[in-house]
Amino acid sequence: MRHLSRYSALAKGLFVAEGRKGRKVVVIDVRPTATSKQADEFLEITPGQDFEIATVLRAIIKGLPLPELPEDSTVGGVPLSKWRELVSLMKACHYGVVMFGIGVTESRGKDLNLEQIIKLVGEMNEFTRFYAIPMRGHGNVNGSNQVLTWQTGYPFAVNLSRGYPRYNPGEFSVMDLLIRREVDAALIIATDPGAHLPKVAVEHLKNIPTIVLEPHENLTTSWANVVIPVAPAGVGVSGTFYRMDNVALQVKKLADFPFPSDLEVVKSIKERIADVKDYQRASL
Amino acid sequence: MSSHQDVVCTFCGCLCDDLEVEVADNQITKVKRACTIGRNKLMHAQSDLASVRINGQAATLEEALNEAAGILGKAKAPLVYGLCSTTTEAQREAVALTELIGGIVDNPSSY
């Protein structure tokens, strides 16, 4: 909630000493929000047109002719002239940042929408400095992408069943695995699928043995087969978290909890399984 | 009573690192400079704690760890999912565990 004041619109920076007055904020959304009220320009678009909008923006950036689109036409519910104005504004700035939310992956096109946005930002660097930051939900979801990429080469949806990492969102991503009922046990660490995932995905989790590592009672601990309480990171245990702009920060321990940390529990489970595997190998 | 300076709020990806938190008798009593959500998260961090359970029955930590190891060791296609509100140290260990059990590891950025 302090994103605007601490990091984006209002923050005073080395080259923007005056803060909000030195910035242009454009919000693109399907409805007015608290953020859009603070913007210099709000472009209210029709839902599900993200791919089309990004494609047209890329064409305007490159100065390509748009023979199919008359000048008075609209793209995603916004006049073409408005998109041309936006591109002029982007090209005129010294340093632009596209901050995109999870909404762009939820509409038709899914990851292809992101590919368009990332290509757009890449192409903008022909003209001026431009950057893209995904808006992150939970505290260290960026850290999990960092660690997975560091350990396996891929940021999420990694299958290690063949002993080497395979990456395929849509096949090895949680929603698809659960809806297709392809997994036969689950270890849930520091998230609440019972609250966040759609009912059909949660139904499959309820049908397989599910283990949850979680400090508080939530909508998953009520039905999980094994509940192991852990001390919450940043309150009961210290460690590293990655901020949404990829800066690593050390979180603190503030109070004692009667529980072990996630790290200790995962390590202990791993050692127990490794011991059994060693024993089985030795007795072959 | 102790006062912690430059505390990092772990609720969202902004990770505001300028909080001040007062702790008395191991209880968080005051949170300064956080947003409403961050303050509530910290103020309620010590209430409604979970308990160790196996199939709804109270169990010891040792029993729960054995049960978890049994389930994951036997599974043909286990899923390790979440990792979004824990430390990178624990995330790294979770990747090692997934490799050992030949599973699939994913986090909420996949949907």
TrEMBL record, chain A:
One of its GO terms (biological process) is respiratory electron transport chain. GO terms for cellular component: membrane. GO terms for molecular function: formylmethanofuran dehydrogenase activity; NADH dehydrogenase activity. The keyword Zinc does not apply. The keyword DNA-binding does not apply. It comes from the Bacteria. Keywords: Oxidoreductase. InterPro entries: Formylmethanofuran_DH_bsu, Prok_molybdopt-oxidoreductase. NCBIfam families: one_C_dehyd_B. This is Formylmethanofuran dehydrogenase subunit B. It comes from Desulfosporosinus lacus DSM 15449.
Automatic annotation (TrEMBL), chain B:
It comes from the Bacteria. This is Formylmethanofuran dehydrogenase subunit B. It comes from Desulfosporosinus lacus DSM 15449. The lineage of its organism: Bacteria, Bacillati, Bacillota, Clostridia, Eubacteriales.
